[in-house]
Structure formats: structure tokens, C-alpha cells
Amino acid sequence: MNLNKIIWNHLLKSYSLLQRSIQSRNKTCCDCCCNFCKDKVAIVTGGADGIGLECARELLRNGVRGCVIGDVSREKECMEELTKEFPPCKIVFKHCDVTNKCQFSELFKVASSQFCGLHILLNNAGILNDGEWEREIATNVTACVRGTYMGLECMSKSKGGEGGAIINVASILGMQHFAGSPVYVGTKHFLVGFDRSIGDPYHYDRTGVKIFTICPGVTITPMIHNADKFAHKEFESGMGKLLSDALASLPPQGPEAVAKGLIVMLNQGRSGSVWVSEGNEFYEVRIPDRRTFRVGCGCCS
Ligand SMILES: NC(=O)c1ccc[n+]([C@@H]2O[C@H](COP(=O)([O-])OP(=O)(O)OC[C@H]3O[C@@H](n4cnc5c(N)ncnc54)[C@H](O)[C@@H]3O)[C@@H](O)[C@H]2O)c1
Q: What superkingdom does the record give (predicted)?
């Protein structure tokens, strides 16, 4: 073989290696970043109405192959709405009160038996009702922790799963105080701290499951329509009005804004990240280190 031929072969080989590397980089971008939902299986709790229903719709639009909806009400209405747009074989509605451990675990069994897997869990079911604060904590906190652990059990690569994403729906009230509903505020603060911790790379590197928090602002759903009825009864009368007036002063949005944001976050977000959806804007937030908001020296006051 003469020298020219050797150089020519070498160039051809390098060119084909380069092409393959570009193709594989593009493939990673398309398959992993740009379209996380394609062919995945999702569970949406509280998916029969409001933010959950809209998120289920958006997940289906983005190509999930199966969506299991768990809710305590509106089975007929929810199925009617979704099957206008998507084939019924892609959607299963299961009556599920997330505060009931057996009913919640059924959702995971259905995902496995009907769609052979699970990749996305949206812990969306939540209530705003400080008048029934024990049920509020059971729904907004305990059920989300249980769901997250059950989701990790199914999806973790370390347990034979394929990895995936778990999203807990908190609130902008998970990052600020609000006199009108102290327990609700506490439950949503819990989720932000829990998700940032369980979403840390320490866990993600082992599980391959990203954990996200979405914090919606005022979103026009049945929950917001009824907000004035749900203050704690022990508080002076007028607390319900304080609650509804304060919520009315914030920029509103439709549930579609949260659902569209969910897809952006699934495609681009890192595990442990916290995202706000408010007034039709969707953005990631970074929680500051406590030392940056220190106001004085405790020993002098
Ligand atoms: N709407 C808002 O302004 C707003 C703002 C911030 C956060 N959020 C959060 O978003 C989530 C969804 O809120 P939404 O406004 O769509 O509420 P919504 O009341 O309109 O819908 C909630 C759905 O969850 C279901 N649900 C309630 N308890 C359940 C339970 N124990 N088990 C299963 N399903 C249950 C309801 O039947 C309903 O279909 C909640 O976690 C809420 O705290 C809402």
C-alpha cells in the first residue's frame, strides 16, 4: 500500500468516527433531552381535575404510551375529556385516595400490568383546607412521601427499573409565609425541602430517578374557587376573606401553564431542582444559602 493510500484510509476512518460521534451526540439530545415523555408510562394523582388533568393531557400530547390517573372523583368526566383527544387504550382511571396506602399502591400495579413499566410519577393530589389540617397533612405530605418512595421502588435503576422522574406539586406558598393558611404553607415548604434532599445527586446517581418540585402560583382551578371556605375555624372570622383576597391579588394563570412547564422541566431540569409556574411564566429558582439572608447577630439582640 503506498503512502497516499494509507493517509487516505486514515482520513476516511477519522471522518467516519467523527460522523458517528456527531450522530450519537444528536441522538442523546433528541432521545433524552428534547422528548423525555416519548414512550414513557406516567401516573398522575389527582388527575381528574385542575392542574392534574391538564398535566395528564400534556404528557399524552408529548407521547407517553400510557397514563394512569388516580383520583377520588370525576372518573366519567375525566375519561370523557381525555378520550376526545387520545385513544382510550392509553388511559386508565383508577379510583384512588392517596391517603390510603393500598389504593395508592394499586396505581403502581396498574402501570405495570397495563403498560409494562413506570417512568413518570406526578404527585399532584393536594388540598387546601386548614380547617381539616390533619387530612391536609396526610394528603399533601404523607401521601407525597409514600408516593415518592413507592415510585423509587419501581423506577430505581438500583432496583432493576429504568430510571425516570418524580414530580411533587408544591406551591409558591412553599417558599413564603402566608397568614391565611399556615398548615397548607407548612406542607408545601415540606415538599421543597424533601425534594431537594431526595433529589440530591447522592440519590440520583444510584437511582437514575430525577426528583422535581413544581411551585404553581394562583392557578384557576376548583381549589382556588373554594379557597375562602378553607381557613381554620378557630381563627377570627374574616380569615377566609383574607385568604381569598390575598390569592386574588396574585397574577392568575390557567392550569395549561403548569402543564406546559412540566414538559420543559422534564426535558431540561436537573434532579433536585425547584420550578415556579406563575402568571404564565415558568422558571427554575435557586434557594439561597441561609447565611446570605442573615439579618444580624443573635448574641447582641
Ligand atoms: N390551584 C392553585 O392555585 C394551586 C397553587 C399552588 C399549588 N397548587 C397545588 O396543585 C395541586 C393541584 O391543585 P388543583 O388546583 O388542581 O386542585 P383541584 O382541587 O382543582 O384538583 C385536585 C384534584 O385532586 C383530587 N384529590 C384531592 N384529594 C385527593 C386524594 N386524597 N386522593 C386522590 N385525589 C385527590 C381531587 O379530587 C381533584 O380532582 C395541589 O397539590 C395544590 O396544592 C394549586
A: Eukaryota
CA 43-218-293 angle, 5° bins: 100
Sign of CA dihedral 206, 209, 210, 214: negative
Task: Give the strand order in the sheet containing 120-123.
Answer: 91-95, 66-71, 41-45, 120-123, 164-169, 209-216, 274-278, 281-285
What confidence tens digit (pLDDT) does each residue in 84-114 have? 999 999 999 999 999 999 999 999 999 999 9
What atom in ligand 1 is closest to the CA of residue 172? 6
Fold of 37-282: Rossmann fold (3.40.50)
Q: Whose CA is nearest to atom 17 of ligand 1?
A: 223
How do the domains of the chain map onto residue ranges? 37-282
- The model's pTM: 0.89
State the catalytic residues.
Answer: 184
Ligand 1 nearest-atom number relative to CA 255: 16
